[in-house]
Amino acid sequence: MLRDELLLAWWRLAKLPGVGSVTLGDIRQNLSRPHDLLSCTAAQLQSFGLKADAAARWLDDPALSDGFDVLQRWRNHNRCGVLLAGVAPYPETLASLRDAPTFLYYHGDLACFSQPMIAMVGSRNPTPYGAEWAQQTASQLAAAGLTVVSGMAIGIDGAVHQGALSCGRTIAVLGSGPDVIYPQRHLGLAQMVMQKGLLLSEFAPGTEPQAKHFPSRNRIISGLSLGTVVVEAAIKSGSLITARQAAEQGREVFALPGAVTNPLSHGCHQLIREGACLVQNAQDVLQELNLLPEQAQAQTQLEFDEPTASADVPIVLPPTATAAVRTEVPQLVTQVDYSATSTDVIALRSTLPISQLLPQLLDLELQGWLAQVPGGYMRLK
Questions:
Q1: How would you class 138 by CB atoms within 10 Å of its CB: exposed for 0-12, middle for 13-18, buried for 19 or more?
Q2: What is the pTM of this model?
Q3: H or E element, residue 214
Q4: What does the alpha-carbon distance between residue 148 and residue 315 come to, in Å, rounded to a whole number?
Q5: pLDDT above 70: percentage of residues in the chain
Q6: What range(s) does the DprA winged helix domain occupy (predicted)?
Q7: Which of 96-100, 234-238, 248-252, 253-257 is predicted with the least confidence, judged by mean pLDDT?
Q8: Per-residue model confidence (pLDDT) at position 189
Q9: Residues 247, 249, 252, 257, CA torsion sign
Q10: Is 288 helix (H, G, I), strand (E, B) or coil?
C-alpha cells in the first residue's frame, strides 16, 4: 500500500501554483521511481525544471498540505483508494504519457486494469441506431476479454457502460470527484459500475463537475486504452477531441460511418478521412488490435443485432451479448431508409394508400422494426 508520506510529497508538489500535469510528469520522468521524491533536495527539483521559490516552498510551506485529509479519508472507504502515477497498479499505458494525472481516485474493482482496454465515445444525443450499436458492440468487446472505457455521459457513453456490464468489465472516467455522479440520471448505472467495474477520476472527492474538467477527463479515457472507437459525433464535439488525443498519444482511432444526411456522422467521416480505421462491428476492432482469437479469424464476422433501442437508453442491462437469430424482414420495412423517410415516400415505394399504410407503419413500430422520427419513419433493423 502507498504510504501517506509518499502521497503527501506528491500532493504538495501538485498544489504549487503553476505546477500542472506536464510539470509533474517531467519531474516523474527525471526520477528513477516516484518514491525518490522523498529524498529530493530543492536543488534537484530546480534541475528538473521547478523554479527556485517553488522548490523552497515545497519543502517548507505547511499550507501545501491543505486538503490532504480528503485523500486520506477516501482511502479508508471500502473498494476505494488512490493510485499514484508510476506505481502499480496505476496503468502503465496512462503513466507513460507526459501529462498523465499524478493521482487517480477510484471506486470499484482494480482487476479492470488486468485486461486490454478499449475506449468508446460518442454523442450525448445519439440516434437509436447509434445507441444500440454502441451497446451491442461494447457487450461483444467485453465478452472478448476487453475492459471498455467511457465517460459516463448520457447517450453513447451510457449505452457503452450498459453493454459492457452485461458481459464483462467497464471503466467510467468522471469529470467530477469519484463520489459525485454526473449526470444524476446515471446514479443507478454508476452503482452497477462500482460493483462490476471501476469509477475513476483525477479529481479529489467532493469536486463538482465543471466544463473545463471534461477535456482533461477525455485524455484519460484515450490514454488508458489501446484505441478509441467513435460511434456518432458532430464535427465540433468532445468525442472528436478524444479521438485526436488518442492519435496524439499514438493509439488507434476507430470510427463508425453513418448516413451522410445525419450530422452525427460528419465527425466520424472526418476522422476516417484523417486516417481513422472504419469499423462496422466488434470484430473489426479486435482484428485491428490483433486481439481476435485465431479460431475466430476464419469465421464469419461477429453478428450485430441492429437497433431496437431508443436514443435515451434506459438503465437496463441486456441479458446477453449473443446475436439473436435473424427473422425475415417484412417487405414494408425494406421501403424505409435508415434515416428519416416521409410517409409520402413510403407510400410511393410500397404503392399502398395512406389509409392502409399508416396502421401497418404503427404495427411495425410496435414490433421494433421502425421508429417514428421528425420527418417520417426510420428503419431500425
A1: buried
A2: 0.79
A3: helix 213-224
A4: 17
A5: 91
A6: 318-376
A7: 234-238
A8: 97
A9: negative
A10: helix
The three cell numbers locating residue 266: 460528419
Give residue 34's identity as a one-letter amino acid code: P
C-alpha cell at 309: 433501442
Radius of gyration of the chain (CA): 24
- Total residue length of the chain: 381
Cβ(45)–Cβ(19) below 8 Å: no
In 3D, which of 362, 363, 344, 364 has the Cα closest to residue 354?
A: 344
* Beta-carbon contacts of residue 267 (< 8 Å; ≥ 6 apart): 230, 232, 233, 234, 235, 237, 239, 240
Distances from the Cα of 296 to the Cα of 237, 287, 290, 291, angstroms:
35, 10, 12, 10
Average pLDDT over residues 340-358: 90
Q: Are the C-beta atoms of residues 133 and 282 closer than 8 Å to each other?
A: no
Pairing of strands 376-379, 370-373: antiparallel
The owner of cell 534537484 is 44
